[in-house]
Specification:
Blueprint: H1 2-28, H2 35-44, H3 51-62, H4 67-88, E1 98-99, E2 102-103, H5 105-109, H6 111-130, H7 138-161, H8 169-194, H9 199-226, H10 229-232, H11 245-249, H12 251-270, H13 277-287
Helix pairs in contact: 2-6, 3-4, 3-8, 3-13, 4-6, 4-7, 4-8, 7-8, 8-9, 9-12, 12-13
Length: 295
């Protein structure tokens, strides 16, 4: 059917783009003389979903930015994302033994190397931005953008670590904007900055990413409660002692709320002039990360 043809077209395109990202990652993380370099390769080349760099690339493409121009910034944001995951998994944080179906960095290389690995990745992100191909003062603007997102992620992690989440739904959703939405928002904004997007467009792109991040986090809550560890490659049941929207409104309502945030993300894109159909399809793909708990 036509729908199947369209689905396969999108699927093949995203898989090809993931391959290009992985090829680029392989190039910049080619050294493995030191244990630290081996650890960073282990973390970065483990082929995660790469949603955030895909958002950078596809947003930039909507503004006619070539992939070879936007690629360093897409990988920059993936470095920041993975740096936070390495920290999240540490015994002093979430104490998780598994990430993406393999041993967490600290299980494989030790806690000391894991801490160095996280710092190394942040440093690599800075280097990628400083040496990126963007013209004028865009590199400085984008470095500040990702730094602000990183700050929000750290604040969100402290909230999570000390179980100081708000116990009402609105407070939890605001926490999700810090924990997940901030980096998705920055990913979209980076693509817009590269494409000389207007200030109005940048606001909509940020809100698109924020809504997408909340939708993703709600899906993660559902997965933690009813998903299978083997399917997503990380432990489930980790949030059982914490308050999540599921505790407040139930599984069915959280599913509906996730759909609502996906729709909000689409609405943001539809307010911007241009062809953002591939980004809209990416919303569906990202949501599909937790597809086995969608119904």
């Amino acid at each position: 059917t036509l729908d199947n043809v369209i689905y396969l077209t999108y699927f093949n395109f995203f898989m090809d783009l993931r391959d290009r990202i992985c090829e680029y990652l392989g190039g910049i993380f080619s050294k493995k003389d030191f244990l630290l370099e081996q650890a960073t390769r282990y973390v970065m080349l483990n082929r995660g979903h790469l949603w955030r760099p895909l958002v950078v690339l596809k947003t930039g493409e909507a503004y006619q930015v070539p992939f070879d121009v936007s690629m360093p910034y897409a990988v920059e944001i993936e470095c920041v994302h993975n740096a936070t995951l390495v920290l999240d998994d540490l015994p002093c944080m979430d104490n998780s033994p598994m990430r993406r179906g393999q041993e967490s960095c600290h299980f494989k290389f030790g806690e000391n190397i894991a801490v160095l690995c996280s710092t190394y990745l942040i440093n690599k992100a800075i280097m990628l931005t400083c040496t990126g191909p963007a013209q004028g003062n865009k590199n400085a603007i984008m470095m500040n953008e990702v730094a602000e997102a990183g700050e929000k992620l750290l604040l969100g992690q402290e909230i999570d670590l000390h179980h100081t989440r708000n116990k009402d739904l609105n407070g939890l959703l605001e926490f999700y904007r810090l924990k997940s939405g901030a980096l998705y928002g920055s990913a979209a904004v980076l693509g817009g900055i590269l494409g000389d997007a207007s200030s109005e467009d940048l606001l909509l792109l940020r809100e698109f990413g924020m809504n997408l991040g909340v939708a993703y986090q709600l899906g993660d809550d559902l997965y933690d409660r009813v998903g299978q560890e083997s399917a997503l490659g990380k432990p489930v049941g980790k949030d059982v002692k914490q308050v999540t929207p599921i505790n407040l409104i139930g599984i069915d309502e959280v599913r509906r709320l996730r759909t609502d945030y996906e729709d909000r993300a689409r609405d943001c894109l539809r307010k911007i002039n241009g062809d953002f159909s591939m980004l809209e399809e990416l919303i569906t793909k990202i949501s599909g990360t937790h597809q086995d708990v969608s119904s």
